[in-house]
Specification:
Bound molecules: 6-O-phosphono-beta-D-fructofuranose
Strand content: 15-25%
Shape: elongated
Largest sheet: 10 strands, mixed
CATH class of the largest domain: Alpha Beta
Radius of gyration: 46 Å
Number of strands: 23
Helix content: 40-55%
Distance between the termini: 54 Å
CATH superfamily of the largest domain: Glycogen Phosphorylase B
CATH architecture of the largest domain: 3-Layer(aba) Sandwich
Number of helices: 22
Length: about 750
């Protein structure tokens, strides 16, 4: 519309200007004509009265004078008539025009002196009239009086206004016609062909055959479309070849790598790209309100850590909430951008949520409801009806956003986590051909615990819209099957590990998530040594035994228990005072929720209290660094640490444990790991603890410090082998292989 206005506006301005000039000239001309007409009429009336007025003045005949002036009353548009004596005093005047007497009339003297008639427009009260004054000359050639004819002029202005009105309406009609015709032509010549072409591109991009959607455009647009068609054809052929080569290479490789996963995806998905949906986005643009500088950060999230390398390996589209305060500045017209910013490997599509939507769906239902419901940490879940309604609304919003992107045939969609329990069903409603997997990154509770949720039925139904549901460990799969069996009318097949409901089958499998298996952060060995040295100097850590913890500040992470255990360890082992420092990196999280807000204050206070208790000179036992740390920043802390503590009270997997192991290239370190994490099933070589038992926990710290170096190395080597073999590429490969191989009832 803006463009068409730009085109029409100059034409309209020219037409408007032409009409104004032409109108002004015409009105002037008409005005002159009308005034001239009035003038002629007034003059002829005055002249027609001349003899009679002369007679009445010579005879001082007031009666006939009055008769004369009254006789004009009936004349159309004539206002009045006045007869003056030779002094310019009123002799007779039209009765309805008596007020005229009061008017100052300097021009009478002039006419008496010059003996020349005079005609002018005069203002009288609120009227504009035309006055014509004729001198009456006596027989001796002297002026014996005057006659003044006063003519109405209001009709002149009415006529002129009418003329302006006609000119303006013609102009308006012309403008409307020009706009309508231009819009029509614009639509026919530009908009419709471009719309047809866009539609064609859309089908084309989704991989629909050219036979179903042939190009209809001729001319230049047709040529453009045919060029695009050629490029796409070459791309299709290249993809097919890639997919064949990929299948061959797949047979040969042993360890799961980025390339092997790419090959698998090419072989299994062929033309179809992968679509990932998660709440948290992998790259967030954040503006520092104080300085106005924008930075692109990687949020502290297990989902992001795991999925990012997969999409880097095989491309695709990741759809998630654009939660950064500067996110909108970095997307194209379709809300997309290529990421990582420095080396675009896949597409990130951002979905925008209003404050109310984010409050209800994310903070409310997901994190005050489902999160505590699924984590066994004795925090009471809160379910509010308005949060649930918002949660449903946002799931639908994401479903619509995903549907917009899907290719024509059998798309693959990989949904992440508890934020999107309804998404599978919503997508299947419109695209039953889509293959959908949901991975649940947190624990799944028992049926007794799950039925606390007032919406448990809808949630289970929504999840069963997916073809495959993945959990980290077998135990969570069993809990889910029990829940479906107990709370929903469904058939659970314990042989196939599936749930059948209304003739639709959903498979349930354990896929322990992981990381990419090797350390790719923190630079080379020499570089990392420098970084470690810098940290030791900065925080007075030279010669110290260093422990590390890396967490989002969340009540499930057991940070409070960890501090209490360190305190108890120092109480029981005073010989480690001034020899041991625990560095806690803590990223504030979900801070709008009271429970999280309170936890931050509780930890601040506890760290302060325990540091004060044990402090000695410059030394204090806990170095609490509370801010967001990038993966690059965290790596040297892992590498420096003699021990790492992961003390979650309940955790689906916990990738910090795996990251620490992957970063310990020299195998000089030991992991203290909560037995309530998914990782504890794989890392039997870690020192497993019950974080609720502070005594046991404190003793495990001493055990970690005093464990012989060879023992530590042996355990670390075993754990590193697990991480490199069961890496995230294998995890994704297992899910995709299972999803593509599913044979339904
Ligand atoms: O699976 C749990 C999870 O969604 C992980 O991505 C991560 O551990 C954490 O929660 C992130 O939380 P949030 O995205 O709410 O900051």
């Amino acid at each position: 519309m803006k463009k068409i206005l730009l085109f029409i506006l100059p034409i309209l301005i020219i037409i408007g200007a032409a009409f104004t000039i032409f109108g002004t000239i015409q009105v002037r001309f008409e005005e002159e004509k009308l005034i001239d007409d009035v003038q002629r009429k007034a003059k002829s009336i005055a002249e027609s009265m001349e003899l009679s007025v002369k007679h009445v003045l010579e005879n001082n005949d007031l009666k006939n004078a009055n008769y004369l002036v009254e006789k004009f009353q009936t004349r159309e548009r004539l206002q009045g008539c006045v007869i003056y004596d030779k002094e310019g005093k009123v002799f007779a005047i039209t009765s309805r025009f008596l007020d005229w007497k009061e008017k100052e009339k300097p021009y009478l003297r002039e006419v008496l002196q010059t003996k020349e008639p005079r005609g002018e427009i005069e203002q009288f009260k609120e009227y504009t009239v035309y006055s014509y004054v004729l001198p009456i000359v006596g027989d001796n050639n002297s002026v014996i009086g005057l006659v003044e004819v006063i003519h109405d002029t209001s009709y002149v202005f009415t006529r002129l206004a009418e003329l302006w009105r006609r000119i303006s309406s013609t102009l308006i009609i012309l403008v409307v016609l020009i706009v309508l015709i231009s819009m029509f032509l614009h639509k026919q010549i530009f908009v419709l062909p471009v719309l047809r072409l866009t539609e064609w591109f859309k089908h084309f991009q989704k991989g629909e055959t050219d036979a179903n959607h042939p190009i209809k455009e001729k001319g230049e647009l047709g040529k453009l479309a045919s060029e695009v068609e050629q490029v796409a054809l070459s791309l299709r052929v290249a993809r097919k070849t890639m997919s064949d080569v990929a299948s061959e290479r797949l047979q040969k490789e042993e360890l799961w790598t980025e390339t092997k996963l790419r090959d698998l995806i090419n072989a299994k998905l062929g033309d179809n790209a992968l679509f990932v949906v998660s709440n948290r986005e992998p790259f967030m643009h954040v503006m520092d309100e104080a300085t106005g500088t924008v930075s692109c950060i990687r949020p502290a999230s297990g989902v992001v850590t795991a999925i990012h390398p997969i999409l880097c390996a095989c491309g695709g589209t990741w759809i998630s909430h654009g939660g950064g305060n500067a996110d909108k500045k970095f997307v194209n017209s379709k809300d997309k951008l290529g990421v990582p910013p420095e080396d675009n490997r896949y597409i990130l599509k951002r979905v925008w949520l209003s404050k109310e939507e984010e409050d209800g769906y994310y903070y409310g239902f997901s994190n005050e409801g489902l999160w505590p419901l699924c984590h066994n940490t004795h925090t009471r879940p809160i379910f509010r009806e308005e949060d649930w309604l918002m949660y449903k609304k946002v799931n639908q919003k994401f479903a619509d956003s995903v549907l917009e992107e899907l290719p024509a045939q059998s798309p693959f969609i990989f949904i992440q986590d508890y934020h999107f329990t309804l998404l599978g069903e919503m997508i299947k409603e419109k695209r039953p051909d889509a293959k959908i997997a949901l991975f649940w990154h947190i624990p799944w509770p028992t049926p007794e615990a799950f039925q606390i949720c007032p919406y448990h039925k809808e949630i289970l139904e929504g999840m069963l819209g997916c073809d495959l549901i993945g959990f980290h460990v077998k135990n969570h799969c069993n809990n889910f099957l029990d829940t479906a069996n107990r709370l929903l009318e469904s058939r659970v097949d314990t042989e196939k590990f599936s749930v059948v409901r209304s003739g639709k089958e959903t498979f349930v499998r354990a896929f322990p998530i992981s990381i990419n298996g090797h350390s790719d952060q923190g630079g080379s060995g020499a570089e990392q040594q420098q970084q470690i040295e810098k940290l030791r100097q900065e925080f007075n850590l030279q010669g110290m035994i260093v422990g590390v913890g890396v967490d989002r500040i969340d009540y499930t992470k057991g940070i409070v228990e960890r501090i209490l255990a360190i305190d108890r360890f120092l109480e029981k082992n005073p010989q480690y005072r001034k020899k041991f420092v625990f560095v806690q990196l803590a990223a504030p999280s979900r801070t709008h929720i009271k429970r999280y807000h309170d936890l931050i204050a509780e930890i601040d206070e506890l760290v302060e209290k325990k540091n004060w208790k044990h402090m000695d000179g410059n030394w204090k036992p806990i170095l609490y660094l509370k801010r967001h740390f990038s993966a690059d920043e965290i790596a040297p802390y892992y590498a420096m640490a003699d021990l790492c503590i992961v003390s979650s009270l309940h955790d689906g997997m916990n990738l910090v444990a795996k990251e620490y192991v992957a970063e310990k290239r020299d195998c000089q370190g030991i992991l203290i790991l909560s037995q309530f994490t998914g990782a504890a099933r794989e890392f039997t070589d870690a020192i497993l603890v019950n974080p609720y038992s502070i005594e046991e926990f404190a003793d495990s710290i001493r055990q970690a410090i005093e464990m012989p170096a060879e023992e530590k190395q042996k355990r670390m080597r075993n754990m590193r082998k697990i991480v490199s073999e069961n890496n995230v590429y294998r995890w994704a490969a297992n899910i995709i292989t299972d999803l593509t191989a599913l044979k339904k009832v």
